[in-house]
């Protein structure tokens, strides 16, 4: 296996369709980012209470030394394809901020229509950055084969889940929101990369430099 060193990452754009998407999918990666990283945190939807949860969560997942910039929008949840132009403007505005070392975006094969649209737009807007497409467990059963892994220690895995519970209380009533779902997926992905826990991503295109 060939590794990509997160220690060299200085700038990140994190794209989420909904509050909690980024943390569910990439919370372990956020916990692993170096101090001093700049993160532009972009959400396409969210009521004020949900956006407040996301603000608190992002701040908790990242180092206190991180420069965290929020770009929060309130397009209708579940209706992003019907707001294609506005969604594209959100993604292009994020891309206009510069050329980040790393972009986090939903997977192109995600069963949720909001996620798929962001994934497609991210791939074209961030042509000069490494885009990691993340996965989110859900009722639709769309988890597939991934090709990039972020190993997590047991402490990191448990810390991620604890922060999810702490900062997204509005989601606790959902029947899939529990330790077994989050840690079960992390354990499977960890097994796949010879780690205890891991998060898994897909890269559709990458350029090697020498």
From TrEMBL:
SUPFAM superfamilies membership: LmbE-like
InterPro entries: GlcNAc_PI_deacetylase-related, LmbE-like_dom_sf
Keyword field: Zinc
A family per Pfam: PIG-L
GO biological process: glycoside metabolic process
Transmembrane segment boundaries: none
Protein name: GlcNAc-PI de-N-acetylase
Taxonomic source organism: Dactylosporangium matsuzakiense
